[in-house]
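YM 10:42: dATP/dGTP diphosphohydrolase N-terminal domain-containing protein sequence, as discussed on the call
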Amino acid sequence: LWAWRAAWSTGRPRQLLRVLCAGSAGGLTAGFASCEDQTQAERHHERPASKRRPVSMGNRDYIEGIKIWGVGIKEDPVPGEKRGKGVQHLRSNTWMYDLASFIQDHFPQIEVMIKYARTVSAQPGFEGYDFRYFINCSEGLFYRALDEGLQTQYSRDLLLMASWSLMAAAEVNCEPFYDMQHARHSKEERRRMRVEFYRQYLEPEAPFVDDKEDLEMEKVLGSFGLASNRFDLIPALALERLDVHNELCAVKWKKDPGAWLRDGFQISARVDSMQRHYWSIHAKDWSEDHLAHGIWNLMALYHVVVNFPEMSDLTNFRDLREEAARANVPE
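YM 10:58: structure's back
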């Protein structure tokens, strides 16, 4: 009777039969205990307990310390604000797209520069040579671009290579131009980032392909066709520094920091500014991030000469030389 009542009260009718069977085999009490063990084992088999916990707590880098299935949202540098993450919409999309395509089209030339800079700077006594090499390349390319008044496709290509070279300098630079107290990146992190910069160009994860024109493919793609590009190889730390500079510009020009993207500007005024930033870099002026200033200037110049060519007030000296040469040729 006790076994019957226990079985019905626990809502386990299947257990009732096992209790009776166990009782006939050797006692109701022992049989009930045996059946309870079997029932627990069956429940475990039917609904195994999962050790996977969807929610984890106490992750200090994430909002409220929460991760769901191992994924969380990182806390902002200033909780509730986006300060310190840079401003990306103030980049020139024209410059970004053309720079990515330029890297694809001119990778052999970039690779040669990368190999040379790393080889020389790895020699004893030449530490830091790569930084000065890329800076000087950038400035030299900039002046050559100015020789044609930034009015030709060749001069615009020179401007893109000057941009890439200055960004490369930002990647290999371990002097305190940026983050002087190592609040953003530790010294060890900066060393690793420098190594990674060289690795991604000399041992790219995605190999370069022979970019032959495929007319049939272009026809099918239609308006979705793109120039071959390598956005993944645009120097990442240089972009970070550019974005922080854009964030500071948004603080300085609160009302309309993106006016230059929409309205353009007089080209010669920005050329003046670019030259001052090169001087400041050479003079080791740590008071501002003149590398980021310079990258912004080259980006802005490219954006305006492409989108607002009428704003150019520079002289194409190469044309003047060629005209003079033609005029002096005897008939």
